[in-house]
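Hi all, a correction to my earlier message: I attached the wrong file for SPNS3 protein. Here's the right sequence:
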Amino acid sequence: EQEDTSLLLQALLEGQNYGAAAAEGTQCPSVSVSRSNPAKRDWLVVAVLCFGNFINFIDWFIVPGILLDIQKYFELSDGKTGLLQTVFTLCYMLAAPIFGYLGDRYNRKIILGAGISFWAAVTLGSSFVTQAHYNIFVLSRGLVGIGSASYSTIAPTIIADLFEEGKRTTVLSIFYIFIPVGSGCGYMLAAGMAKSTGDWHWAFRVTPCMGGLALLLLILLVPHRIQRKTAAHRALSISGMRQGAEEQPDVHRTARTTWCQDVGSLVKNCSFVCSSLGQTAMAFVTGALGVWIPVFLYRAQVVQGIVPPCLQESCNSSNSLIFGGITIGTGILGIIAGAEAARRLRKINNRADPLICATSMFISALCLYIALMVAQTSILSTFIFIAFGELFLSVNWAVVTDILLYVVTPRRQSTAIALQILGSHLLGDAGSPYLIGLVSNSLQARRVPSLQWSFWSLQYSLASCAFVGVLGGGFFLLTSFYIEEDRQEARR
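and the right structure:
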């Protein structure tokens, strides 16, 4: 009994890892891989989750990568074109709370596997939709959004369980690097497949194969149950195993509170609410730019006489390729810079995270506004300012998620992420592509149709993104006033 008490206190005070405790005589039959090399096992899990995130966002941005071809194939207006991404995002956000509820209560590996299988099958099926069945194509994009929601909701909580707060920002940064990398590769894959095959449908036949590989890796390398890496949990696990327990469940999943109680608690969390509103502004901007920037650049080039109008032949996809490359490069640099800035500035300012997010949003909004205004005179300048705008937007991805993870108690994290996804997409990128298209249509209807006015209408409608970016920076500033109090409350 004294030995048990000593070991329990040692785990609580020193935070020794699970494998080290086992090496001192504690048996852990259910996690033999973790006992022999827990760090290697954890990083293998992260690698699998990152690969899944990579595929998830490739599939997300295949449609924007070939939007001109799809618009011409189905003979769509700007409003109906934006509706494609809006339907995807609406289904994604509506499914997120369901998966958040399930992820806090049931086995997350099974939910992830089912989600990957579902969206891979639907994506493959959508590649065979003909010109006469546009509604079926729209429906398929919505179903893909449901499958993607399972992954985006649950995967970050697994990472949160595997790593303590000191390493968690770094690992989340690695995970979120694959958002811009996958997004950029989605543009490039779609444009490349359309150009090489002459048929844009082939762009939807690559990611299902990659999804099958991700599912296989998930089955083989990810444990059936993930142990939460906190000193309290390890101590309880050690104590429980001394009593002959076969496997201890995650501490934050043992308390079965109702979903309404979880939501009520989160709504009272000012840091969570304000940072979620800031992320909503980010989502609005990234959603609108992700869908419309290649089309906007194409119209600017047509007005300048650089490229001919896309009438009969396959549309020029060079803008999607360049924009995809910019998204990859700026995304990687931005996320790494954001994580490093957060790591350094936290040492001197406890409110560093929301202040970093606010500053980057303000700078991004300015860069994007300049990019839109110079497009008619200089395409090169437009690309440069778009790159800076995306760079500062990307700074926030990992930092915002880390804010959520330390201001929300662990047993509510899946629900919190699901609610953040729901809110940010409902008011953000679920409507922004469609809204930009509608505004563009409305402006075009006021004048005689022309290539010049087609460009101007999209330019004026996209300018709203800069003002939304400034609003998002304001919400992050508000977060800085509450974050210390909410962080301490979550720890208690």
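Sorry for the mix-up. The first helix runs from residue 2 to 14.
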